[in-house]
Write a structure and sequence with these properties.
The protein is an alpha/beta fold. The chain has helices at 12-22, 39-45, 59-73, 92-100, 121-137, 154-163, 170-180, 204-220, and strands at residues 2-5, 29-32, 49-52, 78-80, 105-109, 150-152, 185-189.
């Protein structure tokens, strides 16, 4: 289980408690992304492995660190889980079941028929634009392009350990990269919650900038290694 965390000392205990209660068999690594609060101390006290970055790289850089750790430690699967309490550990098996059915990557969608997760009008519009863009660039339609609740099989993890996008909106770019590489990327409905503490890292104008930037990047993004390519031996976090 890879959990990127930036100044999440207040929300992290609930997320880790949820994992212990509903997914006790999973190993957890928290990537402390240059936090200036007690995120690292909380993660360690709660029994998680904690990798501390010397300064804030952003969620993409933190995730790449976690994926590389997973590969180097020899795990066969990995899950991405938010530190802020939005994801529900009781839904993890839904993602893993889809990997068992042959998927290379599984995205938990907030908008595919489960729960009542809501977004504001401006953010909802931006999400619709991203869905439209990804449908044309990746050749696939997804209801939740920015979900951070995901599961990965060995092939995707080997690629993402070295090529995962490090800028904000990394989740959107990663979706396009995986589809373009020919991986079997699937979406499943899951229930998500509102953030339990802290605040999102991007304000309205900064968020608007990133939406514009990601549309430009998507149109020029490189391909990553797909299924059937010779790479490092299978190894990847989730059990």
């Amino acid at each position: 289980m890879v959990i990127p965390a930036f100044n999440e000392q207040d929300a992290l205990p609930k997320s880790l408690a949820d994992l212990r209660a509903n997914a006790p068999g999973l190993d957890v690594v928290v990537i402390d992304d240059g936090s200036i609060d007690a995120t690292a101390a909380v993660a360690t006290a709660e029994g998680a492995v904690c990798l501390q970055l010397p300064f804030n790289l952003g969620i993409g850089g933190a995730l790449r660190t976690g994926f590389r750790y997973a590969v180097e430690m020899g795990y066969e699967r990995a899950l991405q889980f938010d530190a802020d309490g939005q994801h529900d550990a009781g839904q993890i098996q839904v993602l893993l079941d889809e990997l068992d059915q042959g998927a290379d990557m599984v995205v938990g969608s907030r908008f595919a028929g489960e729960g009542d997760y809501k977004v504001g009008r401006s953010r909802g519009l931006a999400m619709r634009v991203l869905r439209w863009a990804i449908a044309r660039l990746a050749g696939r339609r997804f209801s939740d392009t920015s979900s951070g609740f995901r599961a990965f099989g060995p092939g995707v993890l080997r690629s993402f350990a070295t090529d995962y996008p490090i800028e904000y909106m990394d989740s959107v770019e990663a979706l396009v990269l995986a589809c373009r590489a020919g991986f079997d990327v699937r979406e499943v409905p899951v229930v998500m919650h509102e953030r339990v503490a802290g605040q999102a890292s991007n304000r309205r104008f900064r968020l608007a900038y990133h939406y514009v930037r990601v549309l430009l990047v998507l149109a020029t993004s490189k391909r990553i290694q797909g299924p059937g390519t010779d790479a490092t031996p299978e190894a990847v976090v989730a059990s």
